[in-house]
Amino acid sequence: MRNKIIAVNAVIVLIVGLLAFAIVKTQLSLATSSTDQLKRSAQRDAVGVAAKLQLDGLRAERWLSAKAADPATRAVLTKATPDARGDAARHLSDQIANAAPAALGAKPSIVAVVDGNGKILGRNGSDLGRGDDVSATYPAFKEALAKTSPGSDVWTDTKRADQYIASYAPVHDDNNREMMLVIGVALNDALARVTEASGGRGVLLVNEAGDVLANTQTSDDVKRAVKDGAADVKNAITTGNVIAGGKDEVLFAAAPLDGFGEKKSAVVAVAPTSLLEGANGAAYSILGAMALGLVLVVAGGWFLGTYISRPIAVLEEGLLAILNGQSDKRFELDHAELGGLAFRIDQLLNQLMGVEEDNTDEQGRVSKAPTAASFGDAYSVDRSGQGGGAPALAQEPAEQYYTRLYSEYIAAKRSLGEQVDHITDAAFRSRIQGMEQEAASKHGRPVRYQVQVNGREVVLLAVPL
Fold this sequence. Notes:
Number of strands: 13
Distance between the termini: 50 Å
CATH architecture of the largest domain: 2-Layer Sandwich
Number of helices: 14
């Protein structure tokens, strides 16, 4: 029985657990790994990063324009000799570089003053690069210099070792000479600042040829996938729209940097593998709960099976003993579920053998069995030792005593209108002898019984000898 209880409940737990696992895993997979949803997530990230880069560029332009309008800035550039102007330009660049982190939230990699011909007058921290022609390398900057308009652009040049998000603003010195204040932030630093809220597998800055200019948190597989999808990036730059691309396990979206120079760069955001990190773990936690359920089923089934099987084994052994001739065998089973069954079996045995149930306590006093309504007064045996005629009973031969007691018991039963056909002399005698042995062990001396009619009940009175 114990194994059957465990097996049935274990199968139920397995079926429910595996079904719940399959349903949850399927639903989570559909909800978090949909290709369309992943692409939309990448598009949102790409648009957000591009907008932040453009906003940072605009902030830098406005801040530089305010610096350019400052009379102190123009005064620095009024030196008469080229060397003096170069030193003054370097000094001004150092001042702007020191003030930039507090104003823009980023530390610039380069701050320079460029003259009207597009050549560097001076830069922060070093005299290197003085006289370099910036306008020849970056056509968009040359155009802005000619129009004396501010702007921002992505500057990358292997020869010059440039990798900046550059912002610039025109400045007029007291001699009405056109110059530019230029500030550049390293590409990786600029991306790191604006990609903190992105939820994908990295953000890249890519040119129209598909070359990766800068990136954050990306693997080589992602870079190769973006390179292979260069057509999607070029399409985004050409049309000015956000384009989703990629295939297999690498999905991305490209958003053009519209406000940057010649518009030849785009932000590429790579979609995450899942919209909800750890979603698979949620499904597998069901398997853990199922395993715990199986352990509890085994433990609970073991205790429940033991609770039921032990009293059943007692009943089976007792009935086998009765079948083997132990007619005085009765059950004293204290069990919430099977105790009542054992009591009814005792009653059935007493009726079949023609002997009333022994309801006396350890001192020979009559006990009362509870009923559904109240406590009754019907008892068939009285071992209180109140019966009389002990000398006569002691002298009466045993055979004569048992024959007479049986005759008187049957006559008393019939006088009350009860059926006695099922009560045989042998069964009655066996039961009386068993009761005498039990009573003798309690009282420490032999006991015989007398028949007495107590109202509508026949009672056997115990008489110690």
